[in-house]
Amino acid sequence: MGWLFKAGSTRRDLIAENTKGWERTKEDSTVIKSVCLAHCYRGGVFSGVLWSVWERTFIKDGQQIEQPQRWIVCDLLRYVDGEWGYKDMEESMHPYFYSCPLGYLDMVPIEQFGGHAEWRNLVRQHHARSTEKRRARKAARQR
Questions:
Q1: Model-wide pTM > 0.85
Q2: Measuring CA to CA, how many Å separate 88 from each of 1, 57, 94, 95, 127?
């Protein structure tokens, strides 16, 4: 999928819109509700990644009729020619971005909700490298 740009949109507006939940009722009175459980922006002034965890539930007559679904979303955000835009991806697409918070992986256990094991491993490796770099910088400052 390509990039979507909204005229006059700020980064804050775009993040609010991309993390806003929704609810709809099907003809059979099943209520489908999607909510953003967590989100964070990692990046700079003109581009970055919006990570979010979503959950969808299915309720009919006050009872859950299907297991909830959860997934991790990776929205690439970019500022071009005075407008903010985004490109949405999810874990199953193996986005080539690995700054997803480790806690988000815990919120969406692969055994329960599925996911992309190779991508998750690369996320863990990214965080391990970042931690090691911080430790090395701290050790160098203490010398």
A1: yes
A2: 8, 21, 12, 10, 22
